[in-house]
Amino acid sequence: MARSALLNVMTAAAMKAGRGLSRDFGEVQNLQVSMKGPGDFVSAADRKAEGVIRAELQRARPEFGMLLEESGVVQGSDPQNRWIVDPLDGTTNFLHGIPIFGVSIALEREGQIVAGVVYNPAMDELYTAERGGGAYMNDHRLRVAGRKEMADCVVGTGIPHLGKRNHSVFLEQQRRMMLEVSGVRRMGAAALDLCYVAAGRLDGFWESGLSPWDTAAGILMVREAGGYVTDYDGGNAIFESGTVIAGNEVIQKKIRETITATS
Questions:
Q1: Which regions of the chain carry the CATH code 3.40.190.80?
Q2: In the chain, which residue ranges form alpha helices assigned H by DSSP?
Q3: CATH code for the structural domain at 150-260
């Protein structure tokens, strides 16, 4: 597949950070870990990966702004473009030796995500997408699954853990979903969950309490793979609401109807 210059920059940054994460993943027991909040850890590897990505992106486009999970907002001289970066999505998996984690980089232009990269170094899976150019995994074109019946579907979600709110709301959503689908999976890395929807590994996905860096690249993956992504209200306020529902046109709608139905 042909990649634009900017997507090549993003890919190189993600893979360079990923190589460092792979080395640290092999020595996960020795990582220095500090508490960032209840059930939410940040490691030396996380900060190091963010530093690598930030340096690579700023070298290529110093005028672009940034939104980074660890460092927050970095203002740029170009107000139309900003990078949205999660240097280690799936930190808890990483720290427990579970090989489902990744680097996520998106480019937002005038409020629209126009390019995205998600890289899982443990599995050497590189997901890339550009607006209007399709979505790929290791240069293989992606398409969302075509199933139409919920009973045939496996869907992903995120479970609110210690320190998160709305446990009772999620439990009701989960109860309803369990009655409808073949299986529910909790992977622990929203960026990869969305990539799995794009790849047809999951038929759908829903989660709340997310930040823009969790979803930015993955949203584009799903849409460029022919899927649909909205917030819980069926709109595009995913960053503002922190909610996301993804799937093909039929399943995405049915997931939304299931989790938002009134008793």
A1: 150-260
A2: 5-25, 44-60, 91-95, 167-178, 190-198, 212-224, 238-241, 249-260
A3: 3.40.190.80
pLDDT digits (tens, 9 = 90+) for 148-158: 999 999 999 99
> How would you class 57 by CB atoms within 10 Å of its CB: exposed for 0-12, middle for 13-18, buried for 19 or more?
buried
Residue keyed to tokens 């009973």: 151
Give the pair of three-digit tokens for residue 114.
Answer: 């126009």
* Closest to 253 (Cα-Cα) out of 221, 219, 227: 227
The count of residues in the chain is 263
Domain with CATH 3.30.540.10 in the chain: 5-141
Q: Which CATH number fits domain 5-141: 3.40.30.10, 3.30.1300.10, 3.30.540.10, 3.40.50.460?
A: 3.30.540.10
pTM for this model (two decimals): 0.93
Give backbone dihedrals phi and psi of 151, rounded to 5 degrees, phi first. Answer: -65, -20
**Residue 54, Cβ neighbours under 10 Å: how many?**
20
State pLDDT tens for residues 22-37: 988 887 756 656 666 5
